[in-house]
Specification:
Blueprint lengths: L6 H17 L4 H18 L5 H12 L2 H15 L6
Helix pairs in contact: 2-3, 2-4
Protein name: DUF3243 domain-containing protein
InterPro entries: DUF3243 (IPR021637), Uncharacterised_YmfJ (IPR024702), YmfJ/YflH_sf (IPR038292)
Pfam families: DUF3243 (PF11588)
Length: about 80
């Protein structure tokens, strides 16, 4: 099973990557910029596999660029307490 198949697994995966980036000294702004780039990629290139992913994609596609940055920042906050630390 891929981490993309289950939203909780996906959040854990993102949480682990976030903690890795923070431990390597990557700034919060750089992390948020990467989250924005990933959001853009996922919304156009990856088929949603569950209801949560569909909602996120639909919200992303309805948002303007400033709102998309806000969504990316919220996703970073959502996963900051996820993963194995």
């Amino acid at each position: 099973m891929s981490v993309m198949d289950n939203f909780d697994s996906w959040k854990d995966f993102l949480g682990d990557r976030l903690h890795d980036a923070q431990s390597k000294g990557i700034s919060n702004q750089a992390i948020n910029d990467i989250a924005y780039d990933i959001g853009n990629y996922l919304s156009t290139e990856v088929q949603a596999k569950n209801d949560q992913e569909r909602i996120l994609r639909d919200l992303w596609n309805a948002a303007d660029e400033k709102e998309q940055h806000a969504i990316a920042n919220i996703m970073v906050k959502l996963v900051q307490n996820e993963g194995s630390h």
